[in-house]
Design goal:
Elements lengths: L5 E4 L16 H10 L3 E5 L4 H10 L6 E4 L4 E3 L15 H18 L3 E3 L6 E5 L6 H8 L6 E5 L4 E5 L4 H12 L6 E5 L5 H4 L4 E4 L12 E2 L3 H11 L4
Parallel strand pairs: 1-2, 1-9, 2-3, 9-10, 10-11
Antiparallel strand pairs: 3-4, 5-6, 6-8, 7-8
Helix pairs in contact: 1-7
């Protein structure tokens, strides 16, 4: 391999099916990339505390973590974490508190609020409102926030934090150029990563790319095969 490289993976319906384990063969491929010196990262709307446990379960202790759509960056998955700080502005904190209050007042125990450290993520319970219904009822929130609607939840995130900006900040800390970055994603909150990396791989519907020039792949196995070649592995 001519240069050190970094690959960031979205989790749900990308690296692994939603609420299910990784498919057979995926974990050995990740371990093979890591053993060859490729740096790996998990980039998700989930908080880094959740991602740290997932990383340890995958047997990848040196994974970097990008949580809450870029609001959190951890340099590993051990405790206490080493973090790259990204302080909130007072108006951002107030906006998120307002969104959380309105979600709780309107839906109460009809939703589960993910235990985030920064943003707000609402999961409807079975038989409750759908994510689009929640998103429409609460709205995008005050200026400066970004709303993402997923199959199982709704995120309200700080707009200036996204997975792409976090990935570039992580790469700068590690001394890596954007050309030596790759990202694998499938949803709107992954598009910022697709725009900044040398090898963007897309598992979602091509129409959702919104003009971003990414390579569309059918599944994670095809993505991993391309990543092996990109990293110079047989």
């Amino acid at each position: 391999m001519s240069a050190e490289r970094l690959i960031a993976f979205d989790i749900d319906d990308c690296l692994m099916p939603l609420n299910r384990p990784a498919e057979e063969g995926v974990v050995p491929e990740l371990q093979r990339l890591a053993a060859a010196g490729v740096r790996l990262a998990l980039a998700s709307g989930k908080p880094c505390l959740y991602l740290a446990g997932l990383a340890r379960g995958l047997g990848l202790m040196d994974l970097s973590l990008i949580g809450e759509n870029g609001a959190e960056i951890w340099l590993g998955c051990t405790m206490p974490p080493e973090r790259l700080p990204q302080p909130l502005l007072p108006e951002e904190q107030a906006g998120l508190q307002d969104v959380r209050r309105r979600v709780v007042e309107r839906y109460g125990d009809q939703v589960f609020l993910q235990p985030n450290t920064v943003g707000v993520t609402a999961f409807p319970i079975p038989g409750g409102p759908t994510p689009p219904e929640i998103a429409d009822a609460i709205g995008p929130g005050p200026s400066g926030l970004q709303q993402y609607i997923h199959a199982d939840s709704v995120d309200w995130a700080v707009g200036r934090f996204d997975k792409g900006a976090a990935l570039l900040l992580l790469a700068k800390h590690l001394g890596l150029a954007p050309l030596h970055l790759s990202a694998v994603g499938d949803s709107a909150n992954d598009l910022p990563m697709m725009r900044v990396v040398g090898l963007p791989l897309w598992l979602g519907a091509p129409g959702k790319l919104d003009g971003v020039p990414a390579t569309v792949v059918d599944d994670i196995h095809e993505a991993l095969a391309l990543l092996r070649r990109w990293a110079g592995l047989p």
